[in-house]
Amino acid sequence: MAVQVDKSLCNGCGICLFQCGAYVFDFSPQEYRALPARNRHCVNCFACVAKCPQRAIAIRLGGRAL
Prior knowledge:
Layout: E1 2-5, H1 15-19, E2 25-28, E3 33-36, H2 47-51, E4 57-61, E5 64-65
Antiparallel strand pairs: 1-4, 2-3, 4-5
């Protein structure tokens, strides 16, 4: 399982950082976007996917995006 952020869609709003109780994301000031820094902490709650206003986040399970 892997959390992925689409660089072309992420606008750096940071909502995912606050929605994720598992602290999967870090914020990159250089790229001005969220980065999935701790994929192994993801608990598959999909809160980040549901709350991202840009639809920039996907959870990949076995090569398939959800």
